[in-house]
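Quick one, T. Sequence first:
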Amino acid sequence: MKTLLAPSFKKGFTLVELLIVIGLLGAIALIVIAAINPIEQANRARDARFRADGGQIISAVERYFASHSSFPWEGCAGSSCTTSSEAAFGFVSASDDGVGLCSGSSCATAGILVTGDELKSEFIARDFIKATAVDKKIFVGKGQGSSSSMYACYIPLSKATRDTAITNVKIRSLSFDANGVPSVNSACTTANDNWGQNGCYVCIPE
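Structure tokens:
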């Protein structure tokens, strides 16, 4: 007498279960992408680079002054100076001749900070040198008095940098107050405001 065997079934996922798993994986991927936010990360990296480059420009100008007893925009050196280091230097683009990175309107040749080995020659090829839009430039200026600090200002692109500036009341304009410090600008109250149109900058030193 033959014994009847029970039919065997292969174990596996049903179509509904597969769709649920795929949906969950998609939701997790969206959460991860939102958390990473590649555009925000790129903007943070750009802001960090502008901050570092601005700091190097300031240091180069200060080293130049220590060596020549004058600033690059004064066009003199030591005892040959006929201008006063007390004078303010209003904010201009880092590509301006007076800053010392470039020489010539198109920044085709290196300025005295580069030829004098205060900055590397790669600086004249930086994106903020060739830029025409204000939100892609670094601006440099100095308040009244020889003891006043140099400042480098830029418009941050990342939400994190903007939020920090708002929280710490560090949003500046490209003008100096009576103390030779970049004036506070209250035109931007959120990271989503048009910082370029409103002239809202972050400056170093803060």
